[in-house]
Amino acid sequence: MKNLLILTFLVYAIIACENKRQDGQSNSTLEEHAVETNGVQLNDGEKWEANLETTEGIRMMISRIESFNKENSEEYTVLQTNLQSDFKMIFQKCTMKGEAHDQLHNYLLPLKKELDQLSAANLDSVSAYLQTYSQYFQ
Asked: Average pLDDT over the chain, rounded to whole?
């Protein structure tokens, strides 16, 4: 089941961030979306340039968590739905290319796993992880 979920997510990511050649034909391969096992890397010590929609999506996720009432356990499902919607929007509006694009995927995939299992137990770690976005992207 876990492998099926990961495979489904990867297929979605490939489709959502599909690169187009000038003739409009798909030029996307699984290798372009492969995730490094060692996580996000800086660009020779510098931050990667991210598209505005990605940065806005991350900021929205941070804002949702900061304004969330942790005492109301019924609201975790609503928060999870909203965060997953923000996450999906980031992929839908993906315009990044090359290594910056690959590093964004390296950043986002661990987040996806946490969002799928969002609860009181991991909310603080999700929040802390989202705060690290600005260490890698501008």
From this structure: 80
